[in-house]
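This part of the workshop introduces the protein records we will be handling. Getting from the letters to the tokens is the skill we practise here. An example says more than a description, so a record of this kind follows:
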Amino acid sequence: MNRLMAGCLLVFLSSCAASRYSIQEEDGTDYSNARNWAALPSMEDKADLIPDGLQTVKDAPVDVFFIHPTSFNNKNDHQQWNASLAVNKINRHTDRKPIKYQASIFNQAGKVYAPRYRQVHLKAYFTKDTTRAKRAFELAYRDVRDAFRYYLDHYNAGRPIIIATHSQGTTHGLRLMKEFFDGSPLQNKLVAAYLPGIPVPRDYFSHIPACNAPDATGCVNSWRTFEYGYEPRFLAGEKPMIVTNPISWHSDTNYVDKSFHKGAVLWKFKGGILPQIADAQVHKNILWVHKPKFPWSFVYKSKNYHIADYNFFYLDVRENAILRRDVYLKGVRGEE
């Protein structure tokens, strides 16, 4: 697991064989069917949930297209490469975790659209069978691309867009942004992108820059979170990556202490927003954080905080997305 979180760069990997889930490569996913979306503004879903004291806005003038991380990781399913959208257990896992604790971050910045897709099993990031892994990733990305095309054709109506992803979602999100935004007219509609959990090379995009200020728009934020002082072995040979400090929203290596931290969330949003428990510093290609103290934090022993890339900075990301939205909209109105 840590090898994925640490930095398995599979931007181009992607599609997969039939399994007991009866996935056929030639079959597409019908995104006119609301069941194939984990979140839509027109339905009640986990992306609508928020901790006490926060607000959600159903009619925000911006859209958020959220691509969820891997929720297909059960060891009993190790013979399968792609998840079926008909498996309720996987869908519930997606809804109760990344949609609730990640997609919900953006429900005040904009209207949240989050497609279900035939995600790749976690094993595909580590397998030696790279041929089948590539096919699996291709099938998953095809769903994401089809969902985005359907979103553009039927939902977007020319509105500005925030792209938000995590982990496997970032693997697909990178390809999506390269195909649809990088150097195309749609790039003018990009408020900002939040792409944590997978390394994003600084030279991956030809026309989309890294964000270097909290109010910058049309740019990319990314980070991978590890315990302060820990250097994963992969850093030694890794090319330069985009790394954003999600407290200061700069890419410099200045240490930002926890007094500037706006707030994290815990499981089931217990305790509401927990402010000033996390610091942050960009170190080489990763983000360092001293282990935050919260109820039962002593149970978590890993130095890899991939699972908390968003949750450590829940309110920081939330307020930053709202800020970038407002700056973008002000700029557009100023041009009119």
